[in-house]
Design goal:
The protein is 52% helix and 0% strand. The protein has seven helices and no strands. Helix 2 runs antiparallel to helix 3.
Amino acid sequence: MIMSDLVSFTTLDVCVLLGLRIGGCVVDLRRKSQDAPIRKLFPSTHVYVKMIFDEIQKRRNDVNVDDFCKLYVLLGLSEFLLPTVSGSVFGGLFSIVDELGELCNYNWGTTVFQFLVQSLYQTSTSLQADVGGGHTYIGGCAYVLQVITMKWLDKNSFMICQLLSFCC
């Protein structure tokens, strides 16, 4: 909701805004990928975005272009399309990026949309329960929310101008 208006957005909105595919294989973010070769670069139980960035920096002069590209795509997916509040990386992404040629076969639009909606729901629930000590964080692709808000503001710009002139 923005200023008491329900602002809806759909999977198709996310696909158009981000240029993502709407059809294809379902992305299982929770899938364990311990055997994926790119996952083996990280010996710890959990992998965080910062760890991927550090690994890219370490390998930037490496001759293994495949691993570098896989890490870079993994960073993009984890940092921009599917960011978590904690900065952790979904296990299911490791096996997906190990097959770079297959990336286009996945339904990224629906995945990004569902993750963002789930995060908004969890944030709303914690706000209603007054959990978090006054701090609220939203996981998911915040860029989508910014564009949807700007779209709403553009549509309601006359009302916003009136409100601002009344308040100031």
